[in-house]
C-alpha cells in the first residue's frame, strides 16, 4: 500500500500552535510514504513564517513534495516580488518549484500555478503557461506502467458542484480547460489543489480526442478527478474545520478521505470523497 497525505494552506502566521503539534503527530503516526504540500505554506511570505514552515517539514518523518501558493510570494517587497519572486521559497523550502515523486504504484508531479503578477488587479489567482501544459507528457515519462497519476497544484481547476459563485469568488486557474484536456490525454487520475480552504471533489471527463495516439488506440473516455483540501492549520477556515486529505493506494484502487480536526483529535471521514479503480489489465 502507498499512503499519501495532501496538506494544504498551512498559512504559518495564522496557525494555532497546539493544532500544529497534533497535526505533526498525526502525520508521523500514519507512516506515510509522502506528504503533499499544495501551496500557501505562509500567510504573507515573511521570513519568520517560512522558518516555521521549514521547521514543520523537518519534523515530518515522511518525504515531502511542495508547490508554492500565491501567499508564498511576498506582497510587501514589490521589487523582490517582480525580480526574484521565488527567492524565499527556494531558500527555506526547496529549489525545485515543480518537483516530482515516483512510487511503485503512483506518479506525483507538481505544477506551479502561483504567479508574481498578472495583468488583472487580483494577483492571487493562478495560471498555467502554455509551456507547462505542452510539456506535461515529459514529466510522466518515467512513471511506472499502470501507476496512478497525480498532479499537485495550488489553485483549483474545477468549481464545486452547486457552488454559489455570487457569494464565492471564482478562482479557477487560468487555462484550466486546456490543462484538463491534456490531463485526460496523459491519463492523470487525480489533481490535488487548495486555495479555497474548502474540501470537495469534482470530475472532468471527455473523450481523449486531442491525442492522436490515444484516439487511434480506441481508448475510452478518461475521468480526471479534482480533489480540494481545506486549510490544515489556519484560523481562516471559511466555515469549515481544519482538514487534510488522505490518499490510500492498494491493489489497483485509490481512495481519498478527508481527515478533519474536531478541536480534540483528527478523525478520518468513514466515507471516501473519491474512489478510483484500475481495470485489472492496467495493473499487470
From TrEMBL:
Gene3D superfamilies: 3.60.21.10. SUPFAM superfamilies: Metallo-dependent phosphatases. It comes from Acuticoccus sediminis. The keyword RNA-binding does not apply. InterPro entries: Calcineurin-like_PHP, CNP_phosphodiesterase-III, Metallo-depent_PP-like. Keywords: Hydrolase, Iron, Metal-binding. This is Metallophosphoesterase. Residues 3-198 form the Calcineurin-like phosphoesterase domain. Belongs to the cyclic nucleotide phosphodiesterase class-III family. It holds the Pfam family Metallophos. GO terms for molecular function: hydrolase activity; metal ion binding.
